[in-house]
Write a structure and sequence with these properties.
Blueprint: E1 2-4, E2 10-12, H1 15-31, E3 40-50, E4 54-67, E5 71-73, H2 75-85, H3 88-108, E6 116-119, H4 122-125, H5 130-140, E7 148-153, H6 154-159, H7 163-173, E8 176-182, H8 189-194, E9 199-202, H9 204-207, H10 214-230, E10 233-237, H11 242-251, E11 255-257, E12 265-266, H12 267-276
Parallel strand pairs: 4-6, 6-7, 7-8, 8-9, 9-10, 10-11
Antiparallel strand pairs: 1-2, 3-4, 3-11, 3-12, 4-5
Helix pairs in contact: 1-2, 3-5, 5-7
The structure holds ligand C2E and magnesium ion (3 copies).
The site of one magnesium ion has 4 residues, from strand 8.
Length: 280
């Protein structure tokens, strides 16, 4: 039996398939010890607000896993496995608490970082105790709710049961909500109107097309226009070039994030970068 996998490529259910299944099982097994073995770390990527000039506006927390046996494993490989096994709930809560305590520490040191963004998985959103988890993470670190933004992937919002009602409760708590990877799902305007969100994060796949794909440019303009009419803020992710920056600024995008302004970095390196920026 053959499974069609892209153009002219057939993958057979041979030992290779078994091997990839074995690899996933191995990752799953090793990942379950990652927290207790201190193998996880949180990196921070700067977000910039685009006014007459770009000014730092916050940071996104991104988890990193370095295993002694495997080395650095990218989130794209282990997050889906953690979501499948359910371990993402524990992992996600660890990242949330880590990010909140880091922000509190920076603020206690007099560094005025207004907001931290943390990715929330569908599995976390489905947990009855998610509100309590978020509330206690804020409280234990003395953070005002609006200092925390939770990023939820567009497709997830439509897949999860009760996602909207949980998001409403989170929003009532005062935390900010953003739709991550926007444009890759199929949200309609009327659906978007129902969500208690403040921000749309335009997916990197559209930003990549700036300058040579008119379709991507049109989509970006349309998303920004739609966001503006719904009273939502926009963030473009994956901005790597000055040409992309110029296009986004001209199109009215409010914030940007990408290697152009900084890669995700360990907390101390991130802070050096933050302090090196002009204050106005
Ligand atoms: P995301 O939330 O959309 O995060 C943005 C990703 O784009 C990050 O990849 C970041 O390193 C990368 N990126 C940022 N700027 C640029 C750029 O200019 N060019 C390029 N090529 N890439 C850029 P990363 O850290 O590998 O994370 C991938 C995904 O894994 C994230 O996508 C998010 O969906 C997930 N993830 C990461 N950390 C967590 C976490 O703590 N919890 C959950 N649930 N998911 C996480
Ligand atoms: Mg994100
Ligand atoms: Mg994203
Ligand atoms: Mg993305």
């Amino acid at each position: 039996q053959a499974k069609k996998h892209g153009r002219n490529t057939y993958h057979f259910y041979t030992p290779e398939m078994t091997q990839s299944a074995r690899e996933r099982a191995q990752l799953d097994r090793l990942l379950r010890h990652a927290i207790t073995n201190n193998e996880l770390d949180v990196h921070y990527q700067i977000k910039m607000a685009l006014g007459s000039q770009a000014t730092p506006s916050g940071a996104e927390a991104l988890v990193r896993w370095t295993n002694p046996e495997l080395g650095a494993v990218p989130p794209a490989r282990f997050i889906p496995i953690a979501e499948e096994s359910g371990y993402i709930v524990e992992l996600g809560e660890w990242v949330l608490r880590q990010a909140c305590s880091q922000l509190a520490l920076w603020r206690a040191q007099g560094v005025d970082i207004p907001q931290i963004s943390v990715n929330l998985s569908v599995r976390q959103l489905e947990r009855a105790d998610i509100l309590e988890t978020v509330r206690s993470a804020l409280q234990e670190n003395g953070l005002a709710p609006e200092m925390l933004e939770l990023e939820i992937t567009e497709s997830v919002i439509m897949d999860a049961d009760d996602a909207i009602s949980v998001m409403k409760q989170l929003s009532e708590l005062g935390v900010r909500l953003a739709v991550d990877d926007f444009g890759t799902g199929y949200s309609s305007l009327s659906y978007l109107k129902l969500l208690p969100i403040q921000t749309l994060k335009i997916d990197r796949s559209f930003v990549v097309g700036i300058g040579d794909n008119g379709g991507d440019e049109s989509i970006i303009r349309a998303v920004i226009g739609m966001a503006q009419s719904l009273g939502l803020s926009t963030v473009a992710e994956g901005v790597e070039t000055l040409a992309q920056l110029a296009f986004l600024q001209q199109a009215g995008c409010e914030q940007i994030q990408g290697y152009l302004f900084g890669k995700p970095q360990p907390a101390d390196v991130f802070l050096e970068g933050w302090n090196a920026r002009p204050l106005t």
